[in-house]
Amino acid sequence: MTAWASGNLSITGGHLTYHRTGGGGPALVLSHGLTDNGLCWTRLARALAPDFDVIMLDARGHGQSSRIPPGDPGEPGEDIAEAIDLLGLRSPIVMGHSVGARATAMFAAAHPGRAARVLLEDPPLAPLADPAAAERRRTRFREHVGKFRTMSPDEITAMGKAQSPGWHADDFPAWTLSKQQVDPEAMPDYRTPWQETFAAITAPTLLIHADPALGGLITPELAAEAMRINPGIRAVQIPNAGHNTRRENFTGYLAAVRGFLVEI
Predict the structure, then answer these.
(1) Is 64 exposed, middle or buried (0-12, 13-18, 19+ CB in 10 A)?
(2) Torsion angle of C-alpha atoms 176, 177, 182, 184, degrees rounded to 10
(3) Domain range spanning residue 55?
(4) Where are the extended beta strands (E) located within the chain?
(5) 176 in Cβ contact with 35 (< 8 Å)
(6) Which is it for the CA torsion 250, 253, 258, 264, positive or negative?
């Protein structure tokens, strides 16, 4: 990790921080989930770095990237597009987890032809919320972030290990730091139905989902709907894992990712 490059990209209304493994392989752009940061991908990046040039973005409102003005959720898909342009990437693979997967899908849908492949780890595919429900959700999120700000790093780590005892030790340093960095205004506000976004993706896409009984967001019915909407989408269920799929079954997750990427 010490040889990885880091920097800031000046995007519309702010900047994004990124970390990059480098190398001559195909570019792979990673977008993390809510309250995480780019380095939360560290374990996966180490596994893929021999074959890919892995770029881990701190989303706006996360990590060391720009904060979010109240009432302005921004356009996370466009942030990814600007980052790709500024890094000079041509037809990168794009991949995301949770809200980062939704942002990745938004980028791919709005910019056909610019992604070689798309991988989506357990994105939120709920119906659009009405304004009152969306505001309640934002309020709960602000309170959640406020609790992190009263905790020490050791307390945050202890909480994470108690909640997720099966995670690898390498997952916790960046996860702990990210909880101290996240902006209380970072809750996304979706304005386009996920079905419309998924239908517009033209690149081959892998939808990675897990077990709803363990906290996975994607049910088999949702996965089937996604594949009906867009024949270019295939779905794979990772057993013994929930929403944090790669952290809960890293071996199964990595095998599914490598199997999809080896087809390039």
Answers:
(1) middle
(2) 60
(3) 5-261
(4) 5-11, 14-20, 27-31, 53-57, 93-97, 117-121, 205-209, 233-237
(5) no
(6) negative
Instruction: Please list the residues that pair with 7 across neighbouring strands.
Output: 18
Q: What are phi and psi of 208, to 5 degrees?
A: -95, 120
Which CATH number fits the domain that encloses residue 31? 3.40.50.1820
Integer Cα distance of 256 and 264 in angstroms: 14
Number of domains, the chain: 1
pTM score: 0.96
Mean pLDDT, each 10-residue run in order, the chain (264 residues): 87 96 96 98 97 98 93 88 98 98 98 98 96 94 96 98 97 98 95 97 98 97 98 98 98 98 82
Q: Can you tell me the distance from the alpha carbon of 91 to that of 234, in angstroms, rounded to the nearest whole number?
A: 20
Cα torsion angle, 22, 256, 254, 61, sign:
positive
The contacts of residue 243 (CB under 8 Å, 6+ apart) are 98, 122, 210, 215, 216, 217
